[in-house]
Description:
- The complex is a heterodimer.
- Chain A is α+β, with helices and mostly antiparallel strands.
- Helices cover 44% and strands 12% of the residues of chain A.
- Chain A is built from 16 helices and twelve strands.
- Chain A has helices spanning 2-16, 36-47, 76-87, 100-111, 122-131, 177-187, 219-230, 240-247, 264-273, 307-336, 344-354, 361-381, 387-404, 410-423, 429-449, 451-467, and strands at residues 53-60, 63-70, 116-119, 133-138, 144-148, 193-200, 206-213, 259-261, 276-280, 286-289, 469-470, 473-474.
- Chain A has a five-stranded antiparallel sheet with strand order 1-2-4-5-3, with helices on both faces. Chain A has a five-stranded antiparallel sheet with strand order 6-7-9-10-8, with helices on both faces. In chain A, strands 11-12 form a two-stranded antiparallel sheet.
- Chain B folds into two domains: 26-240, no CATH class; 253-398, 2-Layer Sandwich (GMP Synthetase, Chain A, domain 3).
- Chain B has helices at residues 2-16, 54-57, 78-83, 105-110, 116-121, 139-142, 153-167, 176-184, 201-204, 238-247, 310-339, 346-353, 355-361, 365-370, 392-397; strands at 29-39, 45-52, 68-75, 92-94, 100-104, 130-134, 191-199, 217-228, 231-237, 254-261, 264-282, 285-301, 373-384.
- The longest helix of chain B has 30 residues, at 310-339.
- Chain B contains 15 helices and 13 strands.
- Chain A binds chain B through residues 335-337, 339-340, 344-345, 347-357, 360-361, 449-450, 452, 456, and chain B through 14-15, 18, 20, 22-27, 29, 31, 33, 52, 54-55, 57-58, 60-61, 94, 96-97, 99, 124, 126, 150, 155.
Amino acid sequence: MKKFLKKLLSINSKKQIPSNAKPTKAEEIEMKKISFETVKDEIKRIFGNTADLKADDILVGKSEAIIFYLDTVINTDFLKDMLGQTLENPVEQDIRITSEDELRAFGKKAFGVSGYKLINTISEMIETILEGRIAVVIKGVPAALTISFINSEGRTVSEPTTQTVVRGPKDAFVEDISTNINLIRKRIKNHNLQFEKFKVGNETRTSVYVGSVKGVVNDKILEEVQKRIKDINISAIFESANIEELIQDKSATVFPLALNTERPDSVCSALLDGKIAIITDGTPFILLVPAVLTDFFNSSEDNYQNYFMSSFIRMIRYLSFMIGLLMPSAYVGVLTFHPELLPTTLLLSVIAQREGVPFPAVIEVFIMEITFEILREAGVRMPRAVGQTVSIVGALVIGQAAAEAGIISNIMVIIVAITAIANFVFPNYSFANASRLIRFVLIIVASILGLYGVLLVLIFMVAHLSSLRSFGVPYLAPVAPFIVEDQKDVFIRTPIWFQNKRPAYLSPSNTDKQKPQGSPSPPKQTKGGSGS
Amino acid sequence: MKLYGKLIISVLIVFLLSGCWDRKELSEIKLVSGMAVDRGDDGKYKVTVEALNAAELNSRTSGGYAPALVETIEGETLSEISHQFSQYYAQYLVFSHMKLLVIGEDVARTGMIDFIDYLERNRELRDDFKILIAKDSKASDVLKVTNLYRKSSSLKLSTQLENMFQDWGGDPDMRINDFINDITLEGKEAILNAVVVKGDKKVGATVENMNNVTPEAIVLVDSLGIFDKKKLVGFLPLEDTRVYLWITNKFKNTTLTVQCGEDEYSAVRIIHSSTDVQTKMDGVTPEFNINIKAEGYIEGTQCYKALDKIETFKKYEDLVSKDASEKIKSTVEKLQKEYELDIFGFGEIMRRQHNAQFEKIKNDWNQYFSEAKVNVDFEFILRRTGIRSDSFLDEVEK
C-alpha cells in the first residue's frame, strides 16, 4: 500500500516538472578529468542562462586563464583592482603556472595565507562561486584558485528593536552571520567558546552555527542539538524560527521552547550558564536552548541595575503575566457568576455603568479584545506613514466613541487597556503571544463555567506546562522540579557575588561559576591607624 | 483509545459535578442591600427588601430619582417570599450583598425569630450583615428613609453602625452568627442594637428628604434591645452598650467624661482595653471579678491641672478608674435587679471555668446571676496629654 502510494507520488512529482526547466546538477567531476577548453561550457551548462554569471578569459602572468564569478554577489570594485594589479600584472611578470604546487605558491604570494583556497572538483567550484568567491582556472593546472570577494551588503550593527534596555549594551545582532559571531567573540575572549558549522536547507544551504562553551555546556545536550540540526530535512531556512520549529521537543504547544534574542549580552551570559546558541545566517535572532519558562521573564537588564529593583521588576512581570492572562476572563466570570466577590460599592458602580449596554459581558469582552487584536496587527503591518491614522482611529474612535455611544461600558475599556499593557511587559515577545491565545480560551470558558472554569483551564495549562521539555530539560525547572540552589536568579535577582553556581537544571559540566565570596566591603581598619 | 476514554470521563466529571449554573447577566440583576421583617396581617411575616437602583448611586449616572425600590410581600416563610419579588421587580434579586437585617419590634417581642434559620442556611446570603431592631416603628420604615450618604438607608446604616462601634462603642456589632451563638449558649442572653426613625416617615421616603440640611426623617442609633431567650424584653440606653462591649472584651475606642471639679469635666480617650473575667462560686452565690486594663490620653480638660506632673497623671488615672468602675457596676446591677438577664455571658465564662458547678445551676442561671457579687477592678494608664501639656486656661487664670 505504502509502496504504491510512494510510486504514485513519485510519478506525479516527475510529471509536474516540465523538461525544459529541469534543474541541472553539479557532478563530482574532478578538475583533471576536464580540459581547460570545456570548463567554461561545463560551468555555463550547470548555471544555465543566469545573467549574473561571468566567465572571462584573462592572463595570469603568461598563463591563459578563465575567471568565473557571480557579479551580483561579489564586490566588483575590488575585482577590478585585483584583476589589474594582482592577476594580470603579478610581481613576477613573466610567471608561468603549470602545476598545482605552483598555483598554491602563487596564491600564497598574491593573496596571503588565508586569502585563497584551492579546489579540485566542479561541484566545489560551483559552491564557492555561490558563496561569493571568484574562481580562476588556469590552463594546464588540475585545480582552481578561489579568492573571496564577498560583497557584504547589509545593515550595520545598531540598537536592538525588540529587546531594548535603558542601561546596558546598545548593540544588536544583524543579518550577517560573521558580524554576529564577531559580536559574541568580542565579549567572551575564551578559546573554549566554539562554533560548529552546519549547512541547513536543501535549496538555501543556509549556514547555521552552533555555539557553546566547552567545559561548561552539558555535552549530551550539545550532541542532541547537533543531531537534531543535522536531521533537519527541509528545503529552505530563512529565519531562526524555522529552525526552532524543526528542533523543538513538542510542536503541539503555544509556548516557545527556545529563547530567541537579538542581544549579544544575553547570548553571552546564556552561553556561560551552559546554554547553547544556534546562530542562523540571515537573521538577527539567535536561538538559545534549552529554554525554561522563567527565562522568558528575565531581561538582561536585570543584571545591570540594583538587585532590589530588579527583583521588584521581576515580580511586576509575573504579576502582569497573570493580569494579561486572567483580567478579561475574571471580569466575565465575576460579573456573570460571582458578583458577590466584588465590594458592594464597586459592584454598584459597575452595574450603573453597564446599564444600557446591549451585550452580555462575554460578548462585550470579545468585541473589545478582538478589536484590540485587529488594531495591534494593523499597527505592526501598516506602512509607517499611516501609523498616526491608525492610532487615532484606534484610540479615539473605538475606545472613546464606543464607550460614549453606550455600546460598551467604561470599565471594559479599562480592562482591555490594562490587559494590553500588561502583555507588553515581557522582555520576550514570543512568550507574550502565548498568553494572548490562552486569554481567549479563558474568556470562553469563563462565560460558560465562571471562575471555576478559569481555574480548570489554569490547571490544564499548568499540567501542559509541566509536560513540556526543552531538550530534555523540564520547562518549569527550576520551580518544578524545585531546585533550591537555582532560586537565586528566578523570582528574585540576588547580588551577582552571591550567584556562584551555574543553573543546576542545565546540568553543566562544571557547576562552579566563580569562587564563593562575600559581599564587597571597605577594607577593615587596623587599630592604631593605617600605614605601619 | 483508553487514554481518550479516561479523558472524556474526566471532562464529563468536571462539567457535570460542578453544579454551579447560576449565571446571571449583570444588567438583569438588582442588588438587595437590606431586608426588614415585620409581623404580617394575614401571613406570618411581612418581608420588605430594599433593592438598589445602581444608576442613582453613581454620581455620574444619577438622574435625581429614588435610590432604591422598597417593596413588601406577606407570607409564611422568608424563603418563598424572597423568590416572589418578581411581582414587583423586573430584575432578579441578588441577596449576596445584603448589609442589614431589620427586625420589627413586634416580631422580636413575640419571639418569632425562627426565620433566622433561612438566613443562616441560605448559601447566597453572607453571614456578615448586621441585625437591628426597629424600635417604636415598623421595620420596613427603617429601610425607607433616604439620606445623602450613599442615598440608600441600609448602606448608610451599615457604615454608620461600624463607625459607632469603632469610635464610641455604641453598637454591639451583632452579626447573624453572634446572634445565633448568644441565643443558643447556656448562660448568655442575646442583645441587638435598636434604631428609631426620627421625624416624618412620609417625607423620609422621598428624594426631597435629601434636600434639607437637617432631614425631615433620619434613622438614629437609639438603644440596646435585650432578649430573654427568643423574646425581646426591653431596651437599655446607649451608655450600656459601651459597658456591654467593655465587659465582653469587644471594646475598640471610646471617650469617657469624668468630673474633676465642681461643674468641671475632663474627657479621656481610651484607645486600648482588655478585659479578663474570673468567676467564683462560694456556696450559692456566684462572684465575678472583672479586670479591665485600659490605656488612653487626655482629649480635653476644664480643670487646668498641671499636666506635666506625675501626681496629676495619677489623679486622672484614679478618677477614670473610679468613674468607669461605677458605670460598669451600675449597668450590671441594672441587669441583675431589673431584668435578671445575663447578657454579658458570665454564665458562659463560668461554664468554662467551673464546669461542674455551673452544670448544677444552669437551669436557674439567671436567678443566680441576679444575686451574684460583682467586683470591678479597673486599671487605667494615662499615656499622653494630647499635643499640649499645660492648658492655656492656666495662663488666663493668672
